Amino acid sequence: MATFQNNPGAGIELEKGTPHIIVEIIEYVENAVVSKTIIKKTTGNVTAMSFDTGEELGDKISPFDNFIQIIDGTAEITIDKTTHQLKLGNGIIIPAHAQHCFNAKEKFKIISTVIKSGYED
Asked: Out of 8, 13, 44, 77, which residue is the most buried by the measure of CB atoms under 10 Å away?
């Protein structure tokens, strides 16, 4: 079972107006899923996450669309019972209200962008 960790200062956004090497803003931690906030606003957020080999983030449902982009490794993402293998540079939109989970057959890093605006229902 995954240990979920926030990096120190995870609730703090990255410094604005400064270049960042995105794949290096988050480290792998043995036996853990780690999260670091890049931008956090009421209308959405951008988060970097790393998954160690064998870890998973179990079934979730979000009321908002979530764009996932792989920035290191290969990720297995299941959306509404359809499994996708995504490699470096691939992206996928997890639709609002879709059941989804992540499974790390090997370690990987993602950028998750949640958009909270534009929903009238």
From this structure: 77
